[in-house]
Write a structure and sequence with these properties.
- It is a single chain.
- This protein has nine helices and seven strands, in the order αββαβααβαβαβααβα.
- The longest helix has 15 residues.
- It is an alpha/beta fold.
- The protein has a single domain, classed as Rossmann fold (3-Layer(aba) Sandwich), CATH 3.40.50.970.
- Helix content is about 30%, strand content about 15%.
- Strands 2-1-3-4-6-5-7 form a seven-stranded mixed sheet, with helices on both faces.
Length: about 280
């Protein structure tokens, strides 16, 4: 019988000395905890992991980890992460984003990252609101959500991240709830281990601007069907989704984008000479 080896790392090894400054009760605290637990289980050294983010409450996570980190600009985290992974395929690359950052200005990057299938994991903390910039509706906000900034609601159909991810070619698609630390941790482990582009949407309540989302803990539920490697079956399931199914939806078998680092690359001075006029 194969006995799992104990990880040489603890959760504290992946945490920086910077204390998170999210609002008390924010779901992102639990997401950070799940990420730390997942990294422990994966057993990779902190220096072999890179955490890339864009802009927003969720995108603060690189500062709270003891891994390599890059805090990019709004919506561009996936482009940065893809370049890093292609250049350094030996590094585990995690991308942290939110519904505003990832699905609005970053929506085009999201679709093409799924299509390219670079081997990295994209974690989107979805609270259906712009929390950092005082509560505007986001791409995933319900059309009838009434607020001071959108009286009566936007009337717009919400962006459906899992449908878009599946249709665009993501090789692993899942949804979790931040309050389910065990479930989120296990799904993140599977997402990182799975080859290709893995997308995990995490429902993460914003208790400041969306206090109604506290009820998500009573709304999320497991589906009555198993995960699948058939995109057609996954599509049928997800199109009847109520937005609160949790777990792994799709685990594909597409080959990841091929990465190769040239053996002839020299030092920076040599590289500069190639661009000299």
């Amino acid at each position: 019988m194969n006995v799992p080896q104990k990880s040489p790392y603890k959760a504290a090894d992946y945490k920086s000395d910077i204390s998170p400054i999210w609002c008390p009760g924010c779901g992102d605290y639990h997401v950070l905890m799940s990420i730390s637990k997942a990294l422990v289980a994966l057993g990779r050294a902190p220096e072999d992991i890179a955490v890339v983010s864009g802009i927003g409450c969720s995108s603060r996570i690189p500062a709270y980890t003891n891994c390599y980190g890059f805090h990019g600009v709004h919506g561009r985290s996936l482009a940065l992460a893809a370049g890093l992974k292609v250049a350094r395929p030996d590094i585990t690359v995690l991308v942290m984003s939110g519904d505003g950052d990832g699905f609005s200005i970053g929506g085009n990057h999201f679709m093409h990252a799924c299509r390219r299938n670079v081997d990295m994991t994209y974690v989107v903390m979805d609270n259906r609101v712009y929390g950092m910039t005082k509560g505007q509706p986001s791409p995933t906000t319900e059309p009838d959500w009434d607020s001071a900034l959108s009286p009566g609601g936007t009337g717009l159909n919400p962006f459906h991240p899992l449908v878009i991810g599946l249709a665009s070619g993501a090789n692993f698609v899942a949804r979790e709830f931040s309050g389910d630390i065990k479930g989120t941790t296990n799904t993140l482990i599977e997402a990182v281990k799975h080859p290709g582009f893995s997308f995990v949407q995490i429902l993460s309540p914003c208790v400041t601007f969306r206090p109604d989302e506290r009820e998500w803990k009573n709304t999320v539920h497991k589906p009555d069907v198993e995960e699948t490697n058939d995109p057609a079956r996954a599509a049928r399931r997800i199109m009847t989704d109520d937005g609160f199914y949790t777990g792994i939806l799709y685990r594909g078998d597409r080959k990841p984008y091929a990465t190769h680092v040239s053996d002839t690359f020299g030092d920076t001075a040599t590289l500069e000479q190639e661009f000299a006029i």
